[in-house]
Automatic annotation (TrEMBL), chains A, B:
UniProt feature coiled coil, ranges: none
Name listed for the protein in its UniProt record: Metallo-beta-lactamase domain-containing protein
Pfam family for this entry, one: Lactamase_B_2
InterPro entries in the cross-refs: Metallo-B-lactamas, RibonucZ/Hydroxyglut_hydro
Domain (Metallo-beta-lactamase): residue spans on this chain: 77-229
Highest rank taxon of the organism: Eukaryota
Length: 244, 244
């Protein structure tokens, strides 16, 4: 069943839902709360003392949900990264924005803050008209795939965890992409250009360039740009800014 | 620095803090909220409509924190299982009960709902008088250790994740235990007897028997008992009860 476009908060247009803009450890940092300094950390104190909704200091793992409105008015939901705090992000923002499921997932890299929520994929698995669970495509590099295979063998083999016969099994279509600006791919109808960037020396993380009317460059975990990534027309730049 | 016993909600006695009593997917089940049935699931609707504190239908991954008061009045905090929802459990219950850190961790088995929070261990790492981070012992079977080694190589090698040079590195002392009732071990001064039980046929999960004044048997994920586990004196039995 397609989501009803009139149900979408954006009606007939596309939008970006920032599910998280926090660092890998997320905010508040529990250490500031368990062993408070004198005076206590103002950021984390506020992070815990007000409800998470609208609290600028309750920030979960970096993740973007693209609500992509096709020309026929149907909406597709494309998720970039599914980190450690994904369950909270679904309860908070999917319910609020009436997002029924995720149509495809794109991974920037294989760190815990980008992939550890994969165990929850079955919760947001798309369903067809007959309410059958449909495969969800997950786009990732071979390097990320190798890491996922070690971490989540049961997701790659599409069987329950050993000894957990009653568990829900995610149905995933793993799609290998290349870290190459010249090799765009299409996720749920949206063309995405991989933007390889350095994330610590010797480690490549992907950003993505997408959007027809406005070109959006999403770069969530960058320590240094690569020459090829810097050029090209971008109207909206989403960029991490970890202050050191 | 030892925690001040007078700061503990239990003062000079030991106590059990149930950090979570939910199933592997935790409650509310996001599926009930994203695609509500008619009428909507009452359990999950309540799970999301009231604050998590004191909400009987907001239940995180099964986990127990033993606040163990030694004879000299010092408290040691022993955690059984560190699942997917550990960060939320720290923010909610550690802060509430003024638990400053965890002294040791015991794992029942290697499923995601028991171990996926290991990436957060550095947040609750104990510190000595000089505020230096101390190693945290983690007790687990060799089978669980093998699984953790594949999932969290950076925790076993005690280095940052590849490419993440700035990350905090957990300092862990991995301690192999046997799934044998005749091989008790001591975690932060507390003697624990492993109680092997079946969790799905062919898969062994550990429960634990501990406590001097009251003998507590903690069995969080059991499908079938083994003969050796059934016998013995227990005053308090904590047992999962998943209704099918
Ligand atoms: Zn802080
Ligand atoms: Zn990273
Ligand atoms: Zn429900
Ligand atoms: Zn299990």
């Amino acid at each position: 069943m397609e989501p009803d476009p009139s149900q979408s908060p954006t009606g007939g247009s596309s939008s970006l839902i920032f599910l998280g803009t926090g660092c890998s450890g997320a905010l508040p940092d529990a250490r500031c709360l368990l062993k408070p300094s004198t005076p206590p950390c103002a950021v984390c104190s506020m992070g815990i003392s007000q409800p998470p909704e609208g609290n600028p200091n309750y920030r979960l793992n970096t993740s973007l949900l693209i609500d992509y409105c096709h020309d026929d008015g149907t909406h597709k939901y494309i998720l970039i990264d599914i980190g450690k705090t994904f369950r909270e992000q679904v309860l908070r923002w999917f319910v609020h924005h009436k997002v029924p499921y995720v149509d495809s997932i794109i991974l920037t890299h294989e760190h815990a803050d980008a992939v550890l929520g994969l165990d929850e994929v079955w919760v947001v698995q798309p369903r067809n008209d007959r309410n059958d669970v449909e495969q969800i495509p997950i786009f990732l590099t071979q390097f990320t795939m190798d890491s996922i295979t070690r971490r989540f063998p049961y997701l790659v083999e599409q069987k329950p965890e050993d000894g957990d016969e009653d568990a829900q099994v995610a149905k995933i279509d793993w799609k290998i992409i290349e870290d190459d600006v010249d090799k765009p791919f299409v996720a749920s109808g949206l063309q995405c250009v991989p933007l390889p960037v350095m994330h610590g020396e010797g480690y490549i993380c992907l950003g993505f360039l997408f959007g027809r009317r406005a070109r959006v460059a999403y770069l969530s975990d960058v320590s240094r740009f690569l020459p090829k990534t810097e050029h090209g027309k971008k109207e909206i730049l989403v960029h991490n800014s970890l202050f050191r």
